[in-house]
Amino acid sequence: MPATELDFDMTDQHALLRALEQARPQAIVNAAAYTDVDGAERDPSTAHKVNAAAVGFLGDYARANIAR
Q1: Where are the alpha helices (DSSP H) in 1-68?
Q2: Whole-number Å distance between alpha carbons of 40 and 11
Q3: First to last CA, the chain
Q4: DSSP class of residue 36?
Q5: CA distance 8 to 57
Q6: CA 56 to CA 38: how far, in whole Å?
């Protein structure tokens, strides 16, 4: 499947911001999650980036740009 302009690494805040600025969403539904429990125990940094840091960034973006 070819990459689209909205394919990005959500753990990269700069890439996530570029995608949000390009999409200019009116609402955000986050369906991404690191759900591999064993994998999260082996790689807690990535699990935190996906399940906490990126979600927090999405919330910050929504508060600043959508929820007015």
Answers
A1: 13-23, 37-42, 44-48, 54-65
A2: 15
A3: 37
A4: -
A5: 15
A6: 23
- State if pTM tops 0.85: no
pLDDT digit string (tens) for 5-54?
Answer: 668 899 999 999 999 999 999 999 999 999 999 999 999 999 999 999 99
Cα–Cα nearest to 62, from 32, 17, 9, 1: 17
> Does residue 58 register a pLDDT over 60?
yes
- State the Cα angle at 59 between 56 and 61, rounded to 5°: 110
Pick the closest to residue 54 from 27, 33, 23 (CA basis).
Answer: 33
Q: Rounded CA gap, 18 and 54, in Å?
A: 14
On the question of pLDDT at 68 being above 80, the answer is no
